[in-house]
Specification:
alpha+beta; two-stranded antiparallel sheet; globular
């Protein structure tokens, strides 16, 4: 016996299993891990949230953590172009300036990353999400420089444009 919410028959009469929420989150944000510009569509994935009422906070936070890692990697590799489609002009300009004053490329290892949803709101067809990150990082070639970082990241997505992606609009560093 199968649950009609989890599987369905395709045009050829073959049974397909639905994609669970964790898998949908992983696949919908996986372009941050691979550096590809656009994700491949996921068959039977739950539809993307449109507006605050359908917002899946655990799915979003999972993706936000992946993006946090991908953002660190892009900075370490001095390859901000790999994530350019997913960051605002303001964040891009600040990241470029940080790279120019940062000296030699370094390696960042994320030892611990905690993400907490601060705010979700939809106004004028745009959903905005604020996430607070607490991260313990090790930086440098040997990984010896430890740092605790607390930041608040603001993401947005245009809900009126089909297939729109989340964009990182702002990074606010908090005092320790």
């Amino acid at each position: 016996m199968r649950d009609s919410d989890d599987s369905q028959d395709d045009a050829d009469g073959k049974m397909r299993r639905g994609v669970d929420r964790y898998e949908a989150a992983r696949r919908s944000w996986e372009y941050f891990q691979t550096g590809e510009a656009r994700p491949e569509p996921v068959e039977n994935a739950p539809q993307a949230a449109h507006g605050q009422g359908d917002f899946d906070s655990s799915e979003f936070l999972e993706g936000a953590k992946i993006f946090f890692s991908r953002f660190q990697e892009a900075g370490d590799n001095r390859d901000l172009d790999s994530i350019r489609d997913f960051i605002s002009d303001e964040v891009y300009a600040q990241a470029v300036a940080d790279l120019e004053t940062g000296g030699v490329a370094a390696r960042t290892e994320i030892m611990l990353l905690d993400a907490r949803l601060v705010d979700v709101r939809t106004e004028n067809g745009t959903t905005s999400v604020t996430v607070q990150f607490d991260a313990d990082l090790r930086k440098g070639i040997s990984g010896g420089q430890r740092e605790h970082v607390r930041t608040v990241w603001e993401f947005s997505r245009d809900e009126t444009a089909p297939g729109s992606l989340w964009t990182l609009d702002k990074i606010n560093r908090m005092d320790h």
